[in-house]
Amino acid sequence: MLVDLREKVNETIESKSENKWPVGDQLFVQVVMYQGEIFVHLRVWWKNQPTKQGVTMSVGDWYHFTGYLQFDEEASIGLSVLENMLAEKLGDVIKKECEGCVQSYLSQTDHSCLMDPMSVANRHVNELFDSLNACKFILNLAKKAGEKNIVIEHPKQTFQLLRGIKEQDIKTNALSQFRY
Questions:
Q1: Which of 12, 40, 86, 107 has the smallest number of Cβ neighbours within 10 A?
Q2: In the chain, pLDDT over 70 holds for what percent of residues?
């Protein structure tokens, strides 16, 4: 939600006006003027009143904070890119290991890719994950981000971060989306 509101908040800051937007059930982002300064509140409200639960940021802090939101978008797109890359590699290895495909057998029962593709995919998922290419990832990430008008700022770090902390999720999701 904050990603969607970021531009509205920035426009309100630029115009030096005040406004408030819901982010969640009782969570709001509010731009206020106080003693000639602009502040951004990210705060829980209760019965139309702000509570102490939340944070007040200067404009500089807001822009710094939203820089991390950009990385979240980048990481989210990167996660789907890595999952797609891994699923594609799984499809390739299954086809290469299928004697029915290699020999062009007509009977479906002679094709391990049709009869039991998940066992082949599970057997190869770890080595295929380790072989994911950073350059191909960066190209795919840039293409996908370009479709959403998002500028990629840290593609190599995104690749390393996702491989490090999301490895199991990437493998699981690639296997679950894998269809041969």
A1: 107
A2: 91
